[in-house]
Inverse folding.
């Protein structure tokens, strides 16, 4: 590793960081250096690793590992101790120089830093904190910083990370304690939960203090996030959804990310030989969205899964799966139904529902009115009643799935159309 130059290290450690999905910059406070003080900003632009804020801004991050060497031997990890991969390691000073250099070239607006465990959890956490400290205090960097913390490290070191970073994350790794014990025996679900709880307490306490004292320091203003690996163990989609819901409720997570397991070279015999379908990861994100923004309970989403396997269908989205499974709740009257029931109509998003609620205060809505608010009226029709529409025949059809998922007929393209 000592013979590698910075460019070679960057090539290795940027590639090694691609397995970490929790690279979102949403929720941070806006800062810039337009007053001539400091370096950097959190405002949008273009760059290397793209993350998106809630208002649609694209934020570019330098996403790297401090090192891909590790003393742990987690079966699912490409950087595990027994893995035969090319190793590299940055010093804290090199990461600081890279971040500032990339920012000044307008490549990035922030840093996402994670690491394998070297020497010990405390030593590694010290190096990660030193990068953030140097950027903030020595160079007055005001851009976005996301630090991946180590749950086994001293709580004081993890606390320091929160003082310098906009967001911190602690990976829960796997959905079940049994899966973690089997595939990552050196990690403890109890310690991970404890670290998440301590982080939540610090975030809440600091937010409360900032309301009373202007001088109160900010602590991870963008909150904390976590990541689960999907498909490395026997956990069902129902298990994963329940785990994610617990993390949101218990630890106030801003986001739970899902990462489909990818087979790795020289893999352990206890790992699956094939990766799960990427559509499974997508369905879990859709389920997460239903709970967070569509007022679905965890039990509702789990009920959309297959009763025998506990897995969400891959050919249709969870919202449609729930609607088809519980047809007795439909159709709903677009002119009278409450917001929570309109949100359950397949094909109607939050924006469309809010527009419906506004429009129906002034007049009765027809099917054509709803069609103007949604991308697919075919998907919506069997599940609602409008002033001029009642889906009597459609609602009772046994093959309703094929109707709502009907693909448009192929059309011959014209060379000179």
């Amino acid at each position: 590793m000592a013979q590698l130059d910075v460019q070679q290290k960057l090539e290795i450690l940027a590639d090694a960081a691609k397995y970490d999905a929790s690279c979102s910059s949403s929720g941070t406070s806006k800062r810039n250096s337009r007053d001539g003080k400091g370096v950097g900003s959190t405002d949008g632009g273009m760059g290397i690793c793209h993350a998106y804020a809630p208002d649609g801004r694209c934020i570019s991050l330098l996403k790297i590992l401090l090192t891909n060497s590790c003393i742990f031997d987690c079966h699912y990890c490409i950087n595990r101790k027994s893995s035969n991969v090319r190793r590299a390691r940055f010093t804290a000073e090199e990461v600081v120089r890279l971040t500032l250099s990339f920012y000044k070239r307008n490549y990035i607006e922030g840093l996402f830093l994670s690491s394998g465990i070297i020497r010990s959890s405390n030593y590694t956490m010290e190096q990660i904190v030193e990068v953030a400290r140097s950027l903030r205090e020595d160079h007055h960097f005001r851009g976005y910083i996301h630090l991946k913390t180590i749950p086994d490290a001293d709580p004081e070191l993890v606390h320091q990370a929160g003082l310098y970073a906009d967001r911190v994350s602690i990976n829960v790794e796997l959905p079940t304690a049994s899966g973690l014990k089997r595939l990552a025996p050196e990690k403890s679900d109890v310690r991970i939960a404890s670290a998440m709880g301590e982080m939540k307490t610090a975030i809440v306490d600091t937010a409360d203090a900032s309301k009373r004292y202007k001088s109160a320091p900010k602590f991870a203003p963008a909150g904390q996030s976590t990541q689960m690996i999907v498909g490395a163990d026997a956990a069902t989609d129902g298990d994963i959804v329940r785990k994610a819901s617990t993390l949101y409720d218990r630890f106030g997570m801003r986001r739970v990310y899902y990462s489909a397991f990818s087979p790795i070279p020289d893999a352990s015999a206890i790992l699956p030989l094939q990766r799960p379908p990427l559509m499974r990861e997508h369905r879990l994100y859709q389920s997460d969205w239903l709970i967070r923004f569509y007022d679905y309970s965890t039990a509702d989403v789990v009920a959309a899964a297959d009763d025998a396997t506990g897995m969400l269908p891959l050919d249709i989205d969870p919202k449609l799966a729930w609607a088809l499974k519980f047809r007795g709740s439909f159709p709903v009257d677009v002119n009278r139904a409450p917001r929570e029931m309109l949100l359950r109509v397949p094909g109607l998003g939050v924006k469309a529902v809010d527009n419906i609620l506004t429009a129906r205060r002034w007049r009765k809505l027809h099917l054509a009115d709803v069609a103007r608010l949604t991308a697919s009226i075919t998907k919506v029709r069997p599940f609602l009643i409008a002033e001029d529409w009642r889906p009597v025949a459609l609602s009772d059809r046994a093959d309703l799935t094929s109707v709502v998922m009907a693909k448009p007929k192929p059309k011959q393209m014209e060379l000179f159309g």
Notes: Residues 65 and 114 are 5 Å apart (CA to CA).
